[in-house]
Amino acid sequence: MKRPYRVVVAKPGLDGHDRGAKVIARALRDSGFEVVYTGLHQTPEQVVQAVVQEDADAVGLSLLSGAHLTLVPRVVKLLADQGLDDVLVIVGGIIPEDDIPSLKAQGVAAVFTPGAPLDSIGTWLGEALDAREDTRA
Prior knowledge:
By secondary structure, the protein is of the alpha/beta class. The protein is 45% helix and 18% strand. A five-stranded parallel beta sheet has the order 2-1-3-4-5, sandwiched between helices. Helix 1 links the parallel strand 1 (6-10) and strand 2 (34-37).
């Protein structure tokens, strides 16, 4: 990584299971990222506010509730409304394969489902953020 990138990890919606989000947050920290975990039951507005306040480079949304096709597009839109379309949005959790193309078409950079190796998530994110930095230079 070119620098320690800041990532907000959030649990939008009513899903009350955050073990996976905490595991991802820890794995990203171990990979050299600065991680801010927002906790459970965040609204899309709260997630975007955390991204703004933390000046985050990326936001990771963890969803197990099945509300990903409602909550994720709302976060992406709110980021764009704030002029933050350069913030990488990644999604993880129980996401049906058939929904992944729709999420990507709406601006999600990557979707990681159960079983994705933790180190591959950090590696992918670091490379994607480095590539973004290269295009800015």
